[in-house]
Every structure is written in structure tokens, then in C-alpha cells.
Amino acid sequence: KYRSYPYEHMLKIREQNIAPSLRMYYKKPLLLHQGHMQWLFDYEGRRYLDLFAGIVTVSVGHCHPKVTMAAQKQLACLWHTTNIYMHPSIHEYAEKLTSFLPDPLKVVYLTNSGSEANDLAMFMARLYTRNFDIICFRGAYHGGSPYALGLTSIGSYKHGVANGIGCSTTMLPDVFRGPWGGSNCRDSPVQTVRRCSCSEEYLGAVGICSDYCLGCVCHANEQYIEQFKDTLNTSVPKTIAGFIAEPIQGVNGAVQYPKGFLKEAYQLVRERGGVCISDEVQTGFGRTGSHFWGFQTHDVVPDIITLAKGIGNGFPMAAVVTTKEIANSLAQNLHFNTFGGNPLACVVGSAVLDAIEEDNLQKNSKDVGTYMLLELAKLRDKFEIVGDVRGKGLMIGIEMVTDKDSRHPLPSEEINQIWEDCKDMGVLIGRGGLYNQTLRVKPPMCITKKDVDFAVEVIHTALEKHMGKAAAN
Ligand code: PMP
């Protein structure tokens, strides 16, 4: 079918007819043909282990048979109703999805993308509280639509037009790169894996377990909470509409906050009349392993959550889930979404939830993710340029530095080579961080320990090659 589309011809079409703001990965972009579970295949038949899952989107596996079958069956029956008529699929899905959520998060709005979900969450927060201001973290990505772009705080996604009126950023409690807990807390620099007092294993370079109990004594959490209070006192009025955060910051390179931070921040926000929004676009659906939702790892219950990416295993769908009370604030007038909740999306969403349960994928995320974190921590201990290995379950960041002392980000050209070499050896890894300095590992949750052994071996080989080259220079 695609015989008239040689590689060079496609590059030309890209240059002439496809949005130039889309940047492709790799010097020679991959031309993909097929996907199966954790594997991708290109047109030359080369197989790649997909450690980035189409930016954390393929949750249960590429073309997972159960999800594919559900979509195929529905496709032949009915695609679209615009929700002006009834169809069982949306009812089944809303019931199933909310069965995974604690009270009072029981009312579902279906949308088509994460940006749209965050737009709606922001809209609801404002309508419900009758306040306007929303706080978000620096370094966050919450969407690219003009409304959600106000919550996105990464310079490279910003354009010089008005956006984010009423959105204030606050300091990211990043204990590796931030002013507290990282290079500024040298009292307990832990460079090997050991046990934390909470019985978890230390993984981060500064003595942090995967739950981010800080092993250092610089009271980083208190310092970051002071900064949060500072934002509340200086950047917003006395009452606010809300606060949005991911449980682990995704695009910025799997940044984890000190344990207890979100709980305290939620309390401060609620004292100001605001609602708390958890963006679960990357952290939801069992990815963190220990819990089904990222917010549960912080022992909080948000007022609104937003879901996308993994919710549909790659099918374009997204959702907002909130309380009946907040939902009622939007019911004073009509709110309409043509494609949201279409039968095709709903059966896909249901099949994804079934697959997560039937394939035991949350447990797999925990077991295989923790195994991978520990294996990668060995690379951090061996190589000077691996500054930090962190994360939870299958949401992992490997932060690359020039050296462990200075923690300067490793220059892009150097990381690029390591990353390209990994691809050439058959492993696809994501990138992230303000300086593009972090390798992001967020594979389909069906990945196995054997795949991890292969991936770690490949990364090890790429790092050794880099160190050899650096020594030769
Ligand atoms: N929130 C988070 C945490 C995301 O990572 C993204 C996408 N990278 C979005 C929202 C926006 O989702 P979408 O691209 O589907 O609009």
C-alpha cells in the first residue's frame, strides 16, 4: 500500500505539509511499521524495545489483543452517538473507572486529550470556587492548548502570546536540582543502594528511597513548603481556584517531591478556598506500582483528577473525574463535547482497565520497575555522568550530569550520542528535563525482567563507549 512512499519522499512531505513545530526523535527518524506489546518494529524488520511507550501512552502493550479485539468489535457495530442518545458502553465505562477511585471522586467527563481534560479541570475549579487563580509547578507540562498552556511551565513550549492569565507558578520541590536536598545537602550523600528507615531501598543519589523519604537532614520539605507559602502570599489573592500538580513530574524527567510535600500543599490550598487537581495523565493506571493512582502515593485525595495517555493505551481519549458537588457547578448550563464518551473510546477504556487487572500490570510495574531502578542504580554508582536514578514503579528518570559534584547537566550533544547508540542497539528511551538532560524510562507495563536486563546492558554499553571516547579526548 505504501510503495509510493519511500523514506526520502516522506521526509519531503514532512518538510512541506506537516506541522513544523513537531520535532522528531533521532538523527534518522524511525519509520515504524508495527507494534506488539513492549516491542516496536520498523519497516526494515528491526525490533526495538519501547521504553518510552509513545510518551507514556501505551499502558498495557502495543496492539494488546484484548483492547484490539474490543475496538474491532465495536468498530463494526457503532462508533458514534454524540451522547445525545444512550449507549451501554459509556455507562459501563463510568461505572468501571469510578470503581477504581475513592469517594468522592465519582463523576466522569470524557474528553479527547489531556490538554482538553486540564482545560476542563481548570474551568470547573474556577466555576466551583468562583475564584480565578491557579497555582502550578515550574517545570510542569499540563498541555499545549491555549488555556492549559498557562499551566505548562517549560520555556520551550511557551510562545510569545498571551496565555495563562490567572496561572501562577511556584518552585518545584526538586531535591536533586533544587536548592534544598540536592547538591546543597551533602550531609548524607548516598551513592549506593541501602535501606531507608521506612524500609524502602535508597535509590537517589542524595539518599532517597522510592517513596522520597529524605535521608538527608537539611529539612528540604520544610524549605519547599515555605516557598509554596511564599507563592500563596505574594502571587495570588487571599482566595484561589486551585492547585494542579502531577504526583511525579513527567515531562521534566520523573521529578519526585519530598514525602509529605503534596499533603501539606493540599491543606494550604484548601485553606485558601481552592481545589486540588491531580494530573494523572502519566502516573495513573498502575504505573507507579505501589498504587493504582499517583495521588495515593502521597496519601491525599484530590478534588479533581485528569486522565489521558494510558487511559486508552494509545487510543485518543481522556477524562476528568470529580465530585458530584464540583460537577454540579458545571451543570448550571450546557457543556458539550462531540466526541467525548463515544462508544469506541469507551469500549477501549474498559478493555484497558480489564487488561490491567487480568495481566496483573500494577504488580508488574512494582516488581519490574523496582528491579529496574535497582539495576540502574548500579550504573549510577559506576558512572560519574549518571547523576541520579529515581522514580517509582515504571516511571523512571536517569539524570545525566557532567560530574556528580557539580551536577551540571550533561551537554545535549553528549547525551544525544548515548541515546542514539541505545536506539542503534534496539532500545528506545525518552528524553526530558529543562536541559533535556534526563533519560525517561516509562515502558508499556507488560515489560519483563528479561527485557530490563537487555535494556540495562544496552545502556551500560552506550555509557562505556561514551566514557571511552571521553578518556580518549
Ligand atoms: N498532562 C501531562 C502530565 C502530560 O504529560 C501531557 C502530554 N505530554 C498532557 C497533560 C497533555 O496531554 P495531550 O497531549 O493528550 O493533550
From TrEMBL:
Cofactor(s) essential for the protein: pyridoxal 5'-phosphate
* Pfam families for the chain: Aminotran_3
Q: Which reaction does it catalyse?
A: N(omega),N(omega)-dimethyl-L-arginine + 2-oxobutanoate = 5-(3,3-dimethylguanidino)-2-oxopentanoate + (2S)-2-aminobutanoate; L-ornithine + glyoxylate = 5-amino-2-oxopentanoate + glycine; 3-oxopropanoate + L-alanine = beta-alanine + pyruvate; oxaloacetate + L-alanine = L-aspartate + pyruvate
Q: Name one GO cellular component term.
A: mitochondrion
User: Which keywords does this chain's UniProt record carry?
Assistant: Acetylation, Aminotransferase, Mitochondrion, Pyridoxal phosphate, Transferase, Transit peptide
Name the Enzyme Commission number(s) assigned to this protein: 2.6.1.18, 2.6.1.40, 2.6.1.44
Output the GO biological process annotations, alphabetical, semicolon-separated: glycine biosynthetic process, by transamination of glyoxylate; glyoxylate catabolic process; L-alanine catabolic process, by transamination; positive regulation of nitric oxide biosynthetic process
An example of a GO molecular function for this protein is:
(R)-3-amino-2-methylpropionate-pyruvate transaminase activity
Signal peptide limits: none
> What InterPro entries would the database entry show?
Aminotrans_3, Aminotrans_3_PPA_site, PyrdxlP-dep_Trfase, PyrdxlP-dep_Trfase_major, PyrdxlP-dep_Trfase_small
Give compartment(s): Mitochondrion
Its function, per the record, reads: Multifunctional aminotransferase with a broad substrate specificity. Catalyzes the conversion of glyoxylate to glycine using alanine as the amino donor. Catalyzes metabolism of not L- but the D-isomer of D-beta-aminoisobutyric acid to generate 2-methyl-3-oxopropanoate and alanine. Catalyzes the transfer of the amino group from beta-alanine to pyruvate to yield L-alanine and 3-oxopropanoate. Can metabolize NG-monomethyl-L-arginine (NMMA), asymmetric NG,NG-dimethyl-L-arginine (ADMA) and symmetric NG,N'G-dimethyl-L-arginine (SDMA).
Identify its protein family.
Answer: Belongs to the class-III pyridoxal-phosphate-dependent aminotransferase family.
Summarize the subunit comment. Homotetramer.
What name does this protein carry? Alanine--glyoxylate aminotransferase 2, mitochondrial
Phylogenetic classification of the source organism: Eukaryota, Metazoa, Chordata, Craniata, Vertebrata
